[in-house]
Design a protein that fits this description.
By secondary structure, the protein is mostly helical. The protein has 8 helices and 2 strands; from the N terminus they run H-E-E-H-H-H-H-H-H-H.
Length: about 180
């Protein structure tokens, strides 16, 4: 009987991981027009880990990235393919996985208390920014010549800080309310 229950639990886990990978794709397709337009990709990452927990949320992010890498148009602007990941902004997409892993690590160390979740989302965002910024600088410099850190931060980070903090707040509130409807691992 326990084998059946374990198999059923794994099946549910796979379904939730797939659903949240699709949710991230949908979030990436939603572009909010501002001075610098932004998508809801980071919101998708934060809510996936917030609702599913670290392990399943990180797996959902990995599935999302792998789908995009093989060409499924799950990234912003209905794009996909390894070329997107190897482009200047691909590091931010790769950074999503490291954001989820940081959130998972903090969850494992400190539990799922509200303050830990907020701090883990903030730490995850910083990790995503760091990986994406370094990646952008390397790829951009190889194609166009050297570019300064301040310039890259002005292009790729500073305009997104406030929208990303709003996304963290929304993900925190929604994941707290929706987590009870998803069986926890």
């Amino acid at each position: 009987m326990t084998t059946v229950a374990a198999s059923r639990s794994k099946t549910y886990d796979m379904v939730y991981i797939a659903i949240f990978a699709v949710l991230m794709a949908i979030c990436s397709w939603i572009s909010i027009p501002m001075t610098v337009p932004f998508t809801l990709q980071t919101f998708g990452v934060f809510i996936s880990v917030g609702i599913l927990g670290g392990k399943r949320g990180s797996l959902a992010v990995l599935v999302y990235i792998l789908l995009g890498a093989v060409g499924v148009p799950v990234f912003a602007g209905f794009s996909g393919g390894i070329g997107v990941l190897l482009n200047t902004t691909g590091g931010y997409i790769i950074g999503f996985l490291f954001s989820a892993l940081v959130m998972w690590g903090m969850e494992k160390l400190f539990g799922r208390k509200p303050v830990v979740q907020i701090l883990s989302m903030l730490a995850g965002l910083i990790v995503c920014y760091a990986i994406g910024t370094v990646w952008f600088m390397v790829v951009y410099s190889n194609a166009n010549g050297a570019v300064g850190l301040g310039t890259v931060l002005g292009w790729c980070v500073i305009p997104f800080i406030i929208p990303d903090l709003v996304k963290i707040a929304l993900a925190f509130v929604l994941s707290g309310r929706l987590r009870r409807y998803v069986p926890q691992a």
